[in-house]
Amino acid sequence: MARQSISFTRPNDEWLKAQVDNQEYSSKSELVNDLIRQARNQQIEIDWIKAKLDKAENSGFNNDSKKQILAQAKSKIND
Fold it and tell me: Among 8, 22, 53, 79, fewest CB within 10 Å belongs to which?
């Protein structure tokens, strides 16, 4: 595992220490690694949503009513 030296602002350092003191994590390193993992997972979800939005935007517009669009969406969920 790569070793790094990083600095934290006082409020962030105090928060990290509190998490370790509360035995949520065994060390600051474990906590920082967990936060990075969470951020990476969030980025994967954000990228997936962006891809879906891009696909939807590029599919063009239609003149369907709100009811028709809702029915189509519900039918796709039930498939």
Answer: 79
